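yo, Leucine-rich repeat-containing N-terminal plant-type domain-containing protein is done. seq:
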Amino acid sequence: MHFVAFSTLTAAVAPTGDRLALLAIKSMIKVDPQGVMTSWNHSVTNFCQWQGVTCGRLFTLRELRLDNNSFTGNIPATIMNCSKLEALHLGRNNLVGKIPDGIGLLSMLSFLILYVNILEGIQDKKKNAQEKKNLSQHMKTSLQL
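structure:
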């Protein structure tokens, strides 16, 4: 009975913006040959239990580790709703298209791993996040365009 109460509490306090952003990522993945996204569904309300997702305090998304899965698809702009995101690992997939504008402005983002994809366009908006976190160093080494 205590477990049920905790599960209900978890679902109630988990930020909906993070969950919706993750579901948008799932919808943009066209091919998932390893079945990584099978745990990402509407019936599991606590997204912290989904494969590749690490949460912090108050069930906020802290790290998304989806590298080396042979995904094809795009990175949705809704990733910008994950305001507490510290690390985004999407390297070694087959993602295409534009990197969402302003991704470097996520104030908590320290690691952006996007290498071995076919992506374009890192927008440099006033270098705010790059000066604060030295994010440009991570981008240069992780993108390998």
